[in-house]
Hints:
Layout: E1 2-8, E2 11-18, H1 28-78
Antiparallel strand pairs: 1-2
Amino acid sequence: xxxxxxxxxxKVIGVINCYTSYPHEYTDTERAVLxxxxxxxxxxxxxxxxIVKTRVIQEELETRKLVERAKGIxxxxxx
Length: 79
């Protein structure tokens, strides 16, 4: 088994594991390839989380705008 951490900005966000069904000594090249894959996966995960957070914030902002607009209409209507 070969395990490599998923790291983004010096923070471990997960681990990627590679198994074989037979005993195997992983080479430096295999470790390097899995490390590269882990780094790319970590970046993809982080970017996806940032996109989701951005969408949530945008939706909250739009909701706040609607509430403020409705509040203004109610205040005008009720004096």
